[in-house]
Sequence to fold (580 residues):
Amino acid sequence: MSDHSTKPAEQKNDFIRQIIREDIAAQKYQQIVTRFPPEPNGYLHLGHVKSICLNFGIADEFGGVCNLRYDDTNPTAEKQDYIDNIKNDVQWLGFEWSGEARHASSYFDQLYAWAVQLIEQGDAYVDLQTLEQIRDNRGSFAEVGKPSTHREATIAENLQLFDDMKNGKFKEGEAVLRAKIDMASPNMNMRDPIIYRVMHQSHHQTGDKWCIYPMYDFAHPLSDAIEGITHSICTLEFADHRPFYDWAVEKIGEKGGIKLAPHQYEFSRLNVDHTLTSKRKLKQLVDENIVSGWDDPRMPTIAGMRRRGYTPEGLRDFCDRVGVAKSDGVVDFRLLEFSIRQSLETTTARGMAVLKPLKVTITNFDEALKEWDSLKDEGVVARWDNEQNTLWLTQPNHPNVDMGEREIPFTETIYIDQGDYELEPPKGYKRLSPEKPEIRLRNTYVLAITEHVLDDAGNVVELKATIDPTTLGKNPEDRKVKGVIHWVSASQGVPATVRLYEQLFAVADPSSVSDVHDALNPNSLTVLEAVVEPSLANSAAGTRFQFEREGYFIADNEDHSNDKPVFNQIVSLRDTFKPA
Ligand code: ATP
Ligand code: MG
Fold:
């Protein structure tokens, strides 16, 4: 059972879930245990969302648990800030890990003892070749590797050398511990891989306790074993590492206290067009100030998507739709936008915001409003405020979901969007033009343009208009008025900064471009000085809305205030894209 997903669990039947169902049927495990194992060397991104939804989702669906484990074996690139944000991101997506968050680094003592066990078994040796020699002697696909001269040292010599490594007697690169497997293996990962290296670095968790650190490929399977992970799910690039994963678990085995051998299963990583999913490359964008930070709303990081206004529900739905497979592919980013949009449709209040304001003066406002009183009984809820010269119209916040109501101020001067009046309208244009001066203003009267004012360059800078006082909440009796546009009161509306976004990358596959600068979309951010109705300005940071006719927006979590509202575009209102 999972309440995290829009798709019922029984409908999810990818190859990993099939394996788990079989394992459960065979009563192979007491409980399914998965883990999400990020290295804290950056912020999590869209690719990780897939891994999180899969690992935590499976635990939820099969009555198991999922651990959060930091694979922190490389202290140079790792930071506490990253650790904290990863936790925050996982929780925001709606998942809870089992117990405390774990660290591979808290297993360093055990891993060290197991490395000693391997030496004692004759399964590991200290190599004093330079890293270059080690690389050269590994051979290639065409050529078998050349065994190191240190490969045949005695167990006693190796134990001494490994102890020396641990005690700081070697500089970085002078000595490594290698698994003794097969220098002729067709799998390069089995040609005596390095399992420990010297690094004179303090570690964010263990301080200066260690000057040797286990390699990821050694730490990972054994950390899984320590935690009793049953299904260790990772991306396809680790398939070639699986033989070593199994080797390490088997060699340590029961003798080393491993009761249950974890198994690794690989699925295809998530690739989305116009998107980068690599912490290293995303870090470059942050370091070079190409974006405003890890949480820039254009970033495919969870922090960025959160600030952009994407919803956890939408992201989880997207992962469900993408599914889990064994072959690599690229997902259309519009599928992500589709899922986000779906999650917003019935959950966000509506409001009016004019993104490119064009002033409209209603020349018969006072005269028309005199008649308002007499229309009071016709089902329109409104109140006339004499002092403010404002008609306050009460409207529901959503047309068919109960989200309460609000008052919208209607005044003598309003703004409409510049795009809603065209001097020379293109064919099929349904809004205002000199030839089609009449239109309905959403939630209020029918408006008729009587005059446009041009600047020296011939641009329309202001409109004059009248309203038909008989049309509040109903159509005129003698004619048909086509089209509805949104508007905001000029005197009661609030100036707001609105940020519109396009894809951060202009090219479909930014990872294929060697210089990331060449892949960027120069139009990824547009900042507009807009005007919004008071109900939008008065919202709390983090509130999402549908701006009528414009799209979904969120009051920015960092910069928004009621006096100076700031909104980020989440996603446009609709797209022609339909998922399969
Ligand atoms: P990056 O290259 O961005 O650093 P990574 O794979 O090195 O990614 P880790 O922190 O090691 O990042 O990843 C944690 C987990 O997330 C791993 O199990 C990894 O397989 C998974 N993961 C990372 N990127 C993707 C992706 N694009 N699609 C699916 N899963 C992913
Ligand atoms: Mg990595």
